[in-house]
From TrEMBL:
EC category name: transferase
The keyword Transcription regulation is assigned to this record: no
Assigned protein family: Belongs to the methylthioribose kinase family.
Enzyme Commission number(s) from the entry: 2.7.1.100
Organism: Pallidibacillus thermolactis
Protein name: S-methyl-5-thioribose kinase
Protein's gene: mtnK
């Protein structure tokens, strides 16, 4: 077989692979294959059989990133993703795609085709409203995060998982792109929107207090092995339709701070919100205000309730400990929200919510709203204790 040693598969290879290596289609089936990936790193193929109207998705890792040959990342990331998807399926079965096949030689896995859903960032760019989103995503967060912490999981089991999901290459990408480069452009990879350049140099690069707080957050990310986090939970990693939410693309998963996941969700809702404000989409903007608030408040409520039900560690049951633990998650959530808001404006990887704003004055304003809010979130992160506090600062920044 050609598939006993890794190589980067093209469409024809993928068809042959699926026929030869899986039982998903019969050997004489007529299959078509298209590449549908839009991410920065991987190849995503849809393989379909017209006769039976069935299709599956093959996600496959190359040894350099699609976005840049300079980014060399271990192909093992695809195995991390396949494994964690199966773990998440135990904790939050309705909120992730089903995995059918996992192959750690060819560095690919085969999953359920979610093409009846839409990538949430795209849906938000058409100003669609999803009333169930806050409820679904907070269930995903609480149900996947709390059970993998030391307060719930057996400590030795936890350490086994910690070792399995150490993920140094993908963590390095985050450390560089989120926690370092936006504040000093050390690798010359930042992309500043020209009319905002001077403002950004003054307000971000030259703000010593801000950089100190980012440094603290960076070492929290690297050393706080709190829970098995998704690690890349932006709206491009969420498939959505009216009655269903599915979280995909967990290749950045590792043991890190819970606030990293929660903060990424919030920040990416803020991008959609700022776009909605720019184009005067009143109903959409109102829904997002409610949703930003609900994500925070429902997260706290569900986390607190699950804590009472599932915590096992005896010391974690000391009165006052739960509140301390939640406060510390909220502080990290605010910090990370600010970091994600900043890096998507200043750093290499942009978001369409902002870059699609074509009027330069509107774009300048949109970017400054995000960065003004971000600075507050990072510097005063211990003051963001509930959804309302985020909205207050967001309104100030407008
Ligand atoms: P990357 O790691 O390269 O960002 P993603 O997992 O985010 O890859 O997938 C990239 C794109 O491929 C998604 O935005 C989506 O359009 C498509 N895709 C990924 N998984 C599925 C799936 N299970 N069903 C349908 N389309 C998918
Ligand atoms: Mg992706
Ligand atoms: Mg990815
Ligand atoms: Mg902390």
């Amino acid at each position: 077989s050609r598939f006993e040693r890794y190589f980067l598969m093209n469409k024809d290879d993928v068809i042959e692979y699926v026929k030869e290596k899986t039982n998903l289609f019969s050997k004489d089936s007529v299959l078509t294959c298209e590449e549908i990936g839009d991410g920065n790193l991987n190849y995503v193929y849809r393989v379909s059989e017209a006769k039976t109207n069935t299709s599956i998705i093959v996600k496959h890792a190359g040894d350099v990133a699609r976005i840049s040959d300079d980014i060399v990342v271990s192909t093992n990331r695809i195995n991390i993703e396949a494994n964690i998807l199966q773990l998440q399926a135990q904790y939050a079965p309705s909120l992730v795609p089903k995995v059918y096949v996992h192959d750690d030689i060819m560095n690919c896995f085969i999953m359920e085709d979610l093409s009846d859903h839409e990538i949430m960032r795209d849906a938000l760019l058409s100003y669609k409203i999803f009333p169930k989103f806050a409820d679904d995503i907070t269930t995903f967060l609480v149900n996947t995060l709390l059970p993998t912490t030391d307060v719930v999981m057996d400590h030795k089991e936890k350490k086994k998982l910690l070792k399995k999901y150490i993920n140094p290459d993908l963590c390095e990408i985050t450390e560089d792109l989120v926690y370092t480069e936006p504040y000093n452009d050390i690798n010359n990879r930042n992309i500043l929107f020209e009319p905002n350049k001077e403002w950004i140099i003054k307000e971000i690069y030259n703000d010593d207090k801000l950089r100190l707080e980012v440094a603290k957050l960076k070492f929290d990310f690297m050393t706080h092995a709190q829970a098995l986090i998704h690690g890349d939970l932006h709206t491009g990693s969420i498939f959505i339709k009216e009655d269903s939410t599915k979280v995909i693309d967990a290749e950045f998963a590792f043991y890190g701070p819970i606030g990293y996941d929660v903060g990424n969700v919030i920040a990416n809702l803020v991008f959609a919100y700022v776009n909605g404000v720019t184009f005067h989409k009143t109903e959409f903007v109102n829904w997002l205000e409610q949703t930003i608030k609900d994500v925070l408040d429902l997260f706290i409520e569900k986390f607190s309730k699950s804590w009472d039900e599932y915590v096992t560690d005896i010391m974690a049951k000391e009165p006052g400990f739960k509140q301390w633990y939640i406060d510390q998650i909220l502080e990290s959530t605010a910090g990370v929200t600010g970091l994600e808001l900043t890096r998507r404006i200043i750093g290499l990887a942009k978001v369409k919510d902002i870059t699609s704003i074509s009027d330069p004055n509107d774009r300048v304003r949109a970017e400054r709203i995000c960065l003004t809010l971000a600075k507050k979130l990072i510097k005063n992160r211990d003051t963001f204790k509930k959804g309302e506090h985020y909205l207050e600062e967001l309104f100030h920044a407008l």
